């Protein structure tokens, strides 16, 4: 990818000289070269450097479109789309909305005059708008453009499958992500499945062109299946995505090693989800090894991905009880993201907060609860500043950090500080995401657990009961979170002395957990331990 930079720069220099001598003839070509240069810079991780050519391309095409709208409005809309992507990449997610919306408006006006020519471009702009809206936390608003993009591309694909089926699959993937973002995890499954079906047919006819896209759709399907609690079913697409990308990477490492590392990360998460925590270590380690090699060769492009892989490895090590070993990748992820955030706060401060959260969990896991408070507090401070500037985008993340800080205080035995933080986190999530979002349900469960730990069963029990009822309604009776909630409610009944309600709930939770997750899963073992202690 770096090799493509020199000719991209040279093309801009040549066309700039030509445009200075003859603007009428060469300004359009200069704008095209600037667009191309911005894309190339973005591909190698120089996201801030990519912003200047993206802005200049918009400025040139805006002047051209003012003089001759018929000839240059489509090119202006394309440059506005690109500018929105570049702004998003440096963390200016709200600023990215304006050019993306303008691109949609331009294409919407163009299809009135010439629908056949510009409907595909409108669908692309709508897909981008849905992504941008999700990034600023307007997850419900993101659904409309995501749905409309699917509807347009479905009509186009019915008329010309060869030309538009690939784009329909992309829009279906985006729609499934948007539906999951508003907590409609079951509804998100259908478009994810359809995207895989389309791309599988395309890849069978033309593997070279469509296998990479099939792997991407399989990764998305695995994530969606996990979200609805079908953790065993999620393993097949996760494994297949790794197998495809491994073959692609063997043939062309430069193009496909980064994607292989991403699929390995996803596979490790899926394996952990079914309780195969030791098997999850190998793909997590391999993802780190690949991304470390890539980052050594090209730090700008791959250091952020290395930090993500290190975070995942730390979590996986903790799950197998290697809590001290988990500290090294957790610390390294923080160090990398701190350096990145110092150079570009807008793009990397949110990720730094996430790594600080993970580090605090790792420190608490080895009993260093006092040391865990510093990164937990720093994560809250960062996300509070981000949420003050853009509540829609960052209040849910702030709530996550408040939950984490509360859990550290709880581990330190300081429930007087933990409880207000749990309460604030739940209130924020109910306000931003709604009462039935999976993140809100998890936060409600956390607060109930804290009340129970404080001995306040009169407040804990109704919350536990509400949490279980909501989880059964939203995620289904067999979701792993529902199973854990059933176990929690049984424990609360036991603590309240209501043994007649506790015992059947424990027995149901254990039977369901063995059936769904297997006997070796940590949730199953936890329920089994609780039931054995109850029987003794």
TrEMBL record:
<protein>
    <submittedName>
        <fullName>Tetratricopeptide (TPR) repeat protein</fullName>
    </submittedName>
</protein>
<dbReference type="Pfam" id="PF13424">
    <property type="entry name" value="TPR_12"/>
</dbReference>
<dbReference type="InterPro" id="IPR019734">
    <property type="entry name" value="TPR_rpt"/>
</dbReference>
<dbReference type="Pfam" id="PF13374">
    <property type="entry name" value="TPR_10"/>
</dbReference>
<dbReference type="InterPro" id="IPR011990">
    <property type="entry name" value="TPR-like_helical_dom_sf"/>
</dbReference>
């Amino acid at each position: 990818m770096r090799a493509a930079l020199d000719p991209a720069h040279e093309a801009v220099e040549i066309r700039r000289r030509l445009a200075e001598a003859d603007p009428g003839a060469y300004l359009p070509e200069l704008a095209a070269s600037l667009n191309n240069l911005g894309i190339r810079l973005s591909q190698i991780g120089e996201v801030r450097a990519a912003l200047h050519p993206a802005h200049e391309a918009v400025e040139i095409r805006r002047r051209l479109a003012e003089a001759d709208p018929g000839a240059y409005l489509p090119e202006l809309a394309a440059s506005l789309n690109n500018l929105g992507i570049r702004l998003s990449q440096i963390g200016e997610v709200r600023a990215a909305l304006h050019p993306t919306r303008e691109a949609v408006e331009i294409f919407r006006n163009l299809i009135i005059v010439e629908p056949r020519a510009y409907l595909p471009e409108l669908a692309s702009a709508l897909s981008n708008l849905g992504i941008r809206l999700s990034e600023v936390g307007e997850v419900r608003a993101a659904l409309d453009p995501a749905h409309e993009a699917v509807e347009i591309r479905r009509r186009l694909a019915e008329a010309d499958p060869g030309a538009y089926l690939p784009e329909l699959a992309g829009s279906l993937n985006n729609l499934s992500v948007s539906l999951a973002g508003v907590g409609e995890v079951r509804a998100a499954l259908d478009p994810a499945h359809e995207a895989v079906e389309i791309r599988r047919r395309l890849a069978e006819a033309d593997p070279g062109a469509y296998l990479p896209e099939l792997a991407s759709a399989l990764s998305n399907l695995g994530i969606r299946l996990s979200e609805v609690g079908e953790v065993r079913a999620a393993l097949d697409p996760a494994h297949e995505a790794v197998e495809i990308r491994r073959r692609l990477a063997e043939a062309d490492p430069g193009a496909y090693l980064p994607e292989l590392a991403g699929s390995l990360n996803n596979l490790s998460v899926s394996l952990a989800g079914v309780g195969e925590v030791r098997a999850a270590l190998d793909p997590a380690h391999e993802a780190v090894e690949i991304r470390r090699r890539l980052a050594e060769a090209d730090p700008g492009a791959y250091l952020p991905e290395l930090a993500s892989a290190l975070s995942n490895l730390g979590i996986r090590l903790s799950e197998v009880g290697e809590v001290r070993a988990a500290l090294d990748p957790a610390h390294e992820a923080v160090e990398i993201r701190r350096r990145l955030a110092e150079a570009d706060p807008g793009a990397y401060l949110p990720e730094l907060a996430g790594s600080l959260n993970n580090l605090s969990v790792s420190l608490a896991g080895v009993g260093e609860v006092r040391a865990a408070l510093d990164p937990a507090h720093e994560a809250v401070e960062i996300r509070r500043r981000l949420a003050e500037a853009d509540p829609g985008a960052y209040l849910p993340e702030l709530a996550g950090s408040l939950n984490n800080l509360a859990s550290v205080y709880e581990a330190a035995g300081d429930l007087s500080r933990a409880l207000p933080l749990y309460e604030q986190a739940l209130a924020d999530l109910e306000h931003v995401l709604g009462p039935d979002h999976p993140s809100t349900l998890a936060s409600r469960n956390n607060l109930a657990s804290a009340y129970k730990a404080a001995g306040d069963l009169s407040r804990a029990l109704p919350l536990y009961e509400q949490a279980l009822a909501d989880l059964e309604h939203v995620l289904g009776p067999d979701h792993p979170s529902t199973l854990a909630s059933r176990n929690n409610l049984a424990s609360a009944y036991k603590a309240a002395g209501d043994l007649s309600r506790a015992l059947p709930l424990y027995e149901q939770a254990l039977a369901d957990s063995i059936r769904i997750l297997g006997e070796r899963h940590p949730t199953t073992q936890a329920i089994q331990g609780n039931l054995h202690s109850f029987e003794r």
